[in-house]
Amino acid sequence: MGTARTISRRALLFGRDGGERARLPQVLRPPWALGGVAFVDACTGCVACVDACPEQVLVLRKGKAVFDPERGECTFCHACVDACAPGALRDGDGIPPWRLRALVDDACLGARGVVCASCRDACPQSAILVPPAARGGARIDADACSGCGACVAVCPTHAIRLHVPEETAA
Ligand code: SF4
Ligand code: SF4
Fold first, then answer.
1. 33-54 tens-digit pLDDT
2. What is the CATH number of the domain that holds 136?
3. Less crowded by CB within 10 Å, the N or C end of the chain?
4. pLDDT tens, 114-146?
5. Considering Cα of 145, then 74, then 107, then 61, what sign does the dihedral take?
6. pTM, entire model
7. Which atom of ligand 2 is nearest to the CA of 126?
8. Residue 77 Cα, ligand 1 centroid: separation in angstroms?
9. Domain span at residue 148?
10. What's the Cα-to-Cα distance from 60 to each of 30, 45, 52, 65, rounded to whole Å?
């Protein structure tokens, strides 16, 4: 079958796997994007979604729309979907916007004994647990995380990335 590495349920739930997967490059598509090749085929690079996004978190890379959480968070306002005439972004009614979840790696200051709660304070879902007195790194509750990306740019050590947990990856 495949060569993909299996992540433990604990790593999945708490968004930690030693940082290995966090360093793997992953193209993040806009919310409600068609899956994989279907999106690439449908996206014409017209930038309608980029222009429509009030958070300015969408950009065009290699001629296709990409979500860049380093620019801020997605508020799931649906404006990009409404603007996408080619239909590369699906109707969001009842469909989850994506399966992205935050992942914290070992660059987290808390894991190095330094007090920091920037990500926790930025999270609209209250999905981040920061142990008191820097007794460990930030942990993500993957069930609560929406993958909005609000925690990504605020991290002073760039310890947080978004990824699709392997257990649910297509
Ligand atoms: S849902 Fe709204 S905030 Fe999120 S990428 Fe689309 S336009 Fe931007
Ligand atoms: S991606 Fe959004 S919901 Fe998930 S932990 Fe970060 S701020 Fe919270």
1. 999 899 999 999 999 999 999 9
2. 3.30.70.20
3. N
4. 999 999 999 999 999 999 999 999 999 999 999
5. positive
6. 0.83
7. 8
8. 5
9. 100-168
10. 11, 7, 13, 5
